């Protein structure tokens, strides 16, 4: 780990000022992605600006058909929240599947999406639900937020403050876990929304992505959604290839998880 200066701002405005004043500064929330990166000397920030305790970045509320979660809210709080459980049960289920108990107590939703690890769980929910990422300066649609491996649309010194999830008609998250890390070899978030069906995949490719072929078939209103996707196969080209799984195996897992998600959450009558 390279040396750095630790800063603990008193409010969001001070955090923004610190990040703007130091070009190589990085915000620190739960640190579940950033700290291992620092330990392996894959990053060399001059300053770490700790935003984890800022009240402006915490909290869970549901109003007007939107579930808002503060960026510094730990995974464990999302998993245990009765507000989340009532509004979007699949999101609470997803949070409860992240890593292990220690990771869920420290990791935060904002840190997860800002780092955009290829196998992180929350990006699938953000993209699958068509959420809006709120920062200290603007609002970014999910379809525009995730831009590549470990990269997003965030500008330098821009801080995620909250994520706003529109309530779906129904949603479900399924994943095949890596046996050691708990990360998703493949994770699939299926959401029936007012605008149709959205299907997001994490762990499969270098960046979270929508499975548009599955969305098209499921949005067509087939009487039997399972039959509509029974022969659907995800193309393995461009999928991740590592010691845990080949592209072909990840493509196969995507189909298995899609059918499992449909079995667990059949299309609502009003969709």
UniProtKB/TrEMBL annotation:
Pfam families tied to this protein: FAD_binding_5 (PF00941)
Organism name: Ramlibacter pinisoli
Domain FAD-binding PCMH-type, chain residue ranges per copy: 1-170
Alphabetical keyword list: FAD, Flavoprotein, Oxidoreductase
Protein name: Carbon monoxide dehydrogenase
Taxonomy, superkingdom: Bacteria
Family annotation (InterPro entries): CO_DH_flav_C, CO_DH_flav_C_dom_sf, Diverse_Substr_Oxidored, FAD-bd_PCMH, FAD-bd_PCMH-like_sf, FAD-bd_PCMH_sub1, FAD-bd_PCMH_sub2, Mopterin_DH_FAD-bd
GO molecular function: FAD binding; oxidoreductase activity
Keyword Oxidoreductase: yes
